[in-house]
Specification:
Elements: E1 12-16, H1 21-32, E2 36-41, H2 55-61, E3 65-70, H3 76-87, E4 94-97, H4 112-139, E5 145-149, H5 162-182, E6 188-194, H6 208-214, H7 230-241, E7 252-255
Helix pairs in contact: 1-2, 1-7, 3-4, 4-5
Length: 262
């Protein structure tokens, strides 16, 4: 198969939840393509196994440009601080709303506080990131791209995920509606829908998850026969943010090893 390269030289990307997992992989990939990266996360240290270097340090240590901003995506002032930091590099060109949390629970026992936490981060965080980034783009007359992290849960229900699935479904519709409303402003809005990805977000991922991807952890096996990894997902963000996807908006791009079609 052929190879693909992207050039984001001179552009600035804000990645929420960029300290770990998919966000970390996306931040590193954008930096590798020449972008300046603002890593916006509630914590600086990565949660990934075998990862000890903060994302922004990993990028700068390899010659890239990056900075960290402590960010609670449910707090408007925090999100504004992250977008303002992007102004130091010229202003946000790509906003990646990736931060998310999960709380498992049956409909009869999911705690209201856990439900609120998921909506605060997963839905409110995407809305604030989209809103504040779009305001900045319009203020600078520099329309860019917004890419959200959705999920296979945006379309497909899973046992014990009533709250999480609801928030990811909301992200799907937020993406589509924001894409419609911002199209006249030249701002494209899309979302990546990862499948079973081996990250610490999955509550202490173990080797058994690779077996589960081939068997029945998600009610059906993954056709490609393995769990995904953050590096499998990161290129989807770059493509959606690139000129190659210049006629794509309101899209939910699945990166799930074929799970949703099996």
């Amino acid at each position: 198969m052929g190879t693909v390269s992207y050039d984001f030289d001179g552009e600035t990307v804000v990645v929420t939840g960029g300290a770990s997992g998919i966000g970390r992989a996306a931040a590193v990939a954008f930096a590798g393509a020449g972008a300046s990266v603002v890593v916006a996360d509630i914590r600086e240290e990565p949660k990934d196994r075998d990862a000890t270097t903060p994302t922004h340090d990993l990028i700068t240590d390899t010659g890239g440009e990056a900075t960290f901003v402590e960010t609670d995506v449910s707090t408007p002032d925090d999100v504004r601080d992250a977008v303002e930091r992007a102004r130091e590099y010229g202003g946000v060109d790509v906003m990646v709303n990736n931060a998310g949390v999960n709380r498992h629970g049956h409909p009869t026992d999911l705690d209201a506080a856990d439900l609120d936490a998921m909506y605060e981060v997963n839905v409110r965080g995407v809305h604030l990131g989209t809103q504040i980034a779009a305001e900045d783009m319009l203020d600078r007359d520099a329309p860019g791209c917004i890419v959200n992290t959705a999920s296979i849960s945006s379309n497909d229900a899973q046992h014990g995920q009533v709250g999480y699935d609801a928030t990811k479904g909301a992200i799907r519709m937020h993406t589509r509606t924001a894409a419609l409303d911002l199209a006249d402003d030249g701002i494209r809005v899309n979302a990546v829908a990862p499948g079973q990805i081996a990250t610490e977000f999955s509550e202490g991922w173990t080797e058994e998850a690779e077996t589960g991807a081939r068997e029945d952890d998600l009610l059906k096996p993954v056709p490609l026969g393995r769990a995904g990894h953050p590096e499998d997902v990161a290129p989807a963000f770059l493509w959606l943010a690139s000129e190659a996807a210049g006629y794509v908006t309101g899209e939910l791009l699945h990166v799930d090893g074929g799970w949703q079609v099996s």
